[in-house]
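The data are set out underneath:

___
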Amino acid sequence: MAFWGWWILFSVLVVSAFILKIWHRVKYPPATQNKGTEPGQGETMIDTGMSGENSYHRPGFNVTKNPQEYSRGMIKHTRKDR
């Protein structure tokens, strides 16, 4: 390939990468707010949304907002005194 052939190929690749970057930013915009909840007291109700049509019970669970209690809940309890 001559000099101009490489130059055209490089230009096409740069323009394609730029277009893909713009497309990705449009399709997946950056987050405008933080995910999750602020640390504090109380609990957050998580609804699993797996109830049937005729069910009156909506399954879900409560997650504490306190980071220390949350981390204690994630640790496997192996000691006898707990």
Remarks:
- The mean pLDDT is 79.
- The beta strands are 43-47, 60-64.
- The two ends are 74 Å apart (CA to CA).
